[in-house]
Design goal:
Helices cover 13% and strands 56% of the residues. The protein has one domain. It contains two helices and eight strands.
């Protein structure tokens, strides 16, 4: 599971823990004023490791993600969060000593309708280029759904095996 997937899970659990699904009691005047949304910028950095699908070696390094988050409420009391991000990273192969450079973009949409369900979709696309010219494709789509009973379902595409493939 990569950093972006973990971030999506954190957003989902944060909405759940903070009562983000209890929106039906919000006054209509507040909903109308928030319909345009509030946008904030963010930056996140941290360690990241993965196994290269091209040569099987452990790759370790640092990533940085910048982006914007927009939060708004619809007239029926639903909460919506849209996150757009760009990630870069520099990593070192632990066996070969090769350098790897990442550039990927993505977006996340969290929808919490007044019904109490939570839908969170994360999509990321990009490339990690190794110093030997190998290209690792980053293709990730993760869907989290929390039903009205609090049960969380997770689907990941292309598979649970991961989002990295050798080009």
């Amino acid at each position: 599971m990569n950093m972006r997937t973990i971030a999506a899970a954190v957003v989902l659990s944060g909405l759940t823990a903070c009562g983000g699904t209890d929106l039906a009691s919000t006054p209509a005047t507040t909903l109308t004023s928030q319909a345009a949304g509030t946008t904030t910028s963010f930056t996140s950095t941290g360690p990241l490791d993965f196994v290269s699908p091209c040569n099987g070696e452990l790759v370790v390094g640092q990533f940085s993600t910048t982006g914007e988050q927009t939060v708004f409420m619809d007239p029926s009391g639903g909460l919506h969060v849209r996150i757009r991000f760009h990630s870069t990273g520099t990593y070192i192969g632990q066996t070969s000593g090769m350098t790897y450079t990442e550039s990927s973009r993505g977006q996340e949409h969290v929808n919490v309708p007044s019904s109490g369900t939570v839908n969170d979709v994360v999509v990321a696309n990009g490339e990690i280029t190794a110093s030997d010219g190998a290209i690792i494709m980053v293709r990730d789509r993760v869907v989290f759904v929390r039903d009205p009973h609090g049960v969380v379902h997770v689907a990941r595409f292309p598979s649970d095996a991961g989002s990295l493939s050798c080009k």
